[in-house]
Amino acid sequence: VGIILDGAGHTITGTGTSGVDHDGVRVSGWHVTIKDLTIKNFKNGIYSGDTDGLTVSGVTIDSASSYAMYILGLNPSIVTPTDITGNTVKNSNTGIRLFDIKSDVGSCTSGTIDVFVQSNTIQNVDMGIGLSNSDGACVQNNTIEDSTNSIGVTWSHDVTIKNNVITDSTSAAI
């Protein structure tokens, strides 16, 4: 089954937003779920490194000085199921950042694609959603407000971006 961190509506509050290992939640492993949790005042809200099968849902991250969610895959040539759905990020430098996450190429329909960033609300950030070397992802139905850059994709292919609402992006929307 894997690891399940069910915050049950609780809040984790850090002592500041700096420090090399100052993460609200740091995970690595197989089939990890993080849900129903509020994370405040850390350098990184969630740091996931080398996790195969990550689900983050119902999480609120406030005031992350570096990344609200920093998701690093196992290997860019291995399919890494990742589902980042229904979260809120605010007052952070970077909202959701995926590196080296790979999906089977398909459409944005459950069952045909393995990497979803969907139905998240991101407010007052420098970068809303960023994907690097992350192929075949589906970025859909997100709301990004008051950002410098909203959605950025580099060194990736077959990424679908659709039905996102972007308001007050001061530099680049996509």
* Strand segment tally: 12
**Secondary-structure element order, as H and E?**
EEEEEEEEEEEE
Number of helical regions: 0
How much of the polypeptide forms β-strand, as a percent range?
over 45%
User: What structural class do the secondary elements suggest?
Assistant: mainly beta
> What share of the residues lie within helices?
under 10%
Measure the end-to-end span: 37 Å
Provide the low-confidence segments as ranges: none
Instruction: Tell me the Rg in angstroms.
Output: 15 Å
> How would you characterize the largest beta sheet?
12 strands, parallel
Any idea what the shape is? globular
Mean pLDDT across residues: 90
Entry summary:
With 174 residues, the chain is mostly beta strands. It has strands at 3-13, 23-27, 30-49, 52-72, 82-85, 88-99, 115-118, 121-132, 138-140, 143-154, 160-162, 165-172.
Description:
By secondary structure, the protein is mainly β. The mean pLDDT is 90. The protein has strands spanning 3-13, 23-27, 30-49, 52-72, 82-85, 88-99, 115-118, 121-132, 138-140, 143-154, 160-162, 165-172. Strands 1, 2, 3, 4, 5, 6, 7, 8, 9, 10, 11 and 12 form a twelve-stranded parallel β-sheet that branches. The protein starts with a strand and ends with a strand. It is globular and about 40 Å long.
